[in-house]
Write a structure and sequence with these properties.
Layout lengths: L2 H4 L6 E6 L5 H15 L5 E4 L14 H13 L3 E6 L5 H13 L4 E5 L20 H11 L4 E6 L10 H13 L4 E6 L3 H13 L6 E5 L5 H11 L5 H8 L5 H21 L4 E5 L5 H9 L1
Parallel strand pairs: 1-2, 1-8, 2-3, 3-4, 4-5, 5-6, 6-7, 7-8
Helix pairs in contact: 2-3, 5-6, 10-11
The structure holds flavin-adenine dinucleotide.
Flavin-adenine dinucleotide binds next to strand 3, strand 4, helix 5, helix 6 and strand 6.
């Protein structure tokens, strides 16, 4: 099923995001996790592409290979992330052909980050500068794909203002994006304000909040520094009060993610996208709570 048809039901949809592990052992363990995630009937499981501005190997594409196995083993829809990092337009077309041949139905179209230690994104010679260009290319040349794009409730770190960030988001939608999946956030008010502003600007596609089940204080501090999302005092205090107790911190993360999800569902979001960090146990406990 393509993204544009996924959010038509009365009920809410869940989707899960995983990343390709580095080792064969990690991959087998991920497949086990994916099998458990598939039992929650997600509208899709998505697989990330590259990370932190790293160029993904051009050989056997690990995102596509991983998703192909997940889809065929567990009969679950998949969405492949793809970035402009390290790719010429020809390489982009070749990758999209490969995804087509594998029967992948949806692409999360992203620009990608600058390489680690750099603050400015420099496009690959012969490549693309913005995710909107990638969306446009997919829509024109590979119209069979559903397209998701990234949105930022707290604004993208390179954007000069919230207004310009929203205008570039609108441009991605005008180029053909079917839905927006947000960066992780911990304050629902940030999401709700972002959604209101996007709607006021005429963005009409579904906006799906991205939720991270936190595992520990040190982990969340690392992640928020990478993606420029802010930690709320409420979550920080709860995690801090259980410092040194790994299980209690995981429970805090589960409770917080469940509270966030419940409140967002009350606000009428059509779905929730969980950054599952290749774990299924936390998701099971969140969904049980919900
Ligand atoms: C749901 C989700 C999934 C992700 N998955 C991955 C992944 O798999 N792999 C990975 O490496 N990264 C991933 N990322 C991170 C993403 O690649 C980074 O946040 C990246 O820095 C920006 O990507 P983008 O697609 O939002 O870029 P863009 O939409 O191109 O925006 C990048 C910056 O350029 C600005 N901009 C855009 N268009 C214009 C324009 N025409 N003129 C001027 N300024 C403009 C924007 O405001 C923004 O500041 C993901 C993020 C999210 C939210």
């Amino acid at each position: 099923m393509r993204i544009r048809d996924m959010y038509q039901k009365q009920d809410w949809e869940i989707s899960f995001e995983v990343f390709p592990p580095k080792t064969e052992k990690g991959l087998e363990s991920l497949f086990h996790t994916a099998g458990q995630l598939a039992q929650h009937n997600p509208c899709f499981i998505s697989g990330t592409y590259g990370a932190g501005g790293a160029v993904q190997d051009k050989g056997r594409d690990k995102t596509l290979c991983m998703l192909d196995t997940i889809r065929s083993r567990f009969n679950v829809p998949v969405t492949a992330h793809f970035t402009c990092v390290g790719n010429t337009v020809e390489a982009i077309r070749a990758w999209l052909h490969q995804a087509t041949l594998l029967g992948i139905e949806n692409i999360m179209a992203l620009r990608g980050d600058p390489p680690q230690g750099h603050t400015e994104f420099v496009p690959t010679p012969g490549g693309l500068r913005y995710a909107s260009e990638l969306v446009g290319l997919i829509r024109r040349e590979f119209p069979h794909f559903g397209i998701g794009v990234a949105g930022y409730p707290e604004s993208h770190r390179e954007s000069p203002s919230r207004e310009s960030d929203l205008l570039t988001l609108k441009h991605k939608v005008d180029q053909g994006a079917d839905a927006i999946y947000t960066q992780l956030f911990f304050d629902n008010d940030d999401f709700l304000r972002f959604r209101d502003r996007a709607t006021a600007l005429g963005i009409q596609v579904p906006i799906i909040p991205g939720i991270l089940p936190v595992l520990s204080l040190s982990q969340v501090q690392r992640i928020t520094a990478l993606c420029a999302s802010k930690l709320t005092d409420r979550l920080w205090e709860r995690l801090k009060s259980h410092e040194g107790d790994a299980d209690a911190q995981i429970q805090v993360g589960i409770d917080y993610a469940a509270e966030q999800s419940r409140a967002l569902l009350k606000e009428g979001v059509p779905g929730v996208h969980y950054y599952v960090l290749n774990r299924s146990d936390t998701i099971r406990r969140i969904l049980e709570t919900l």
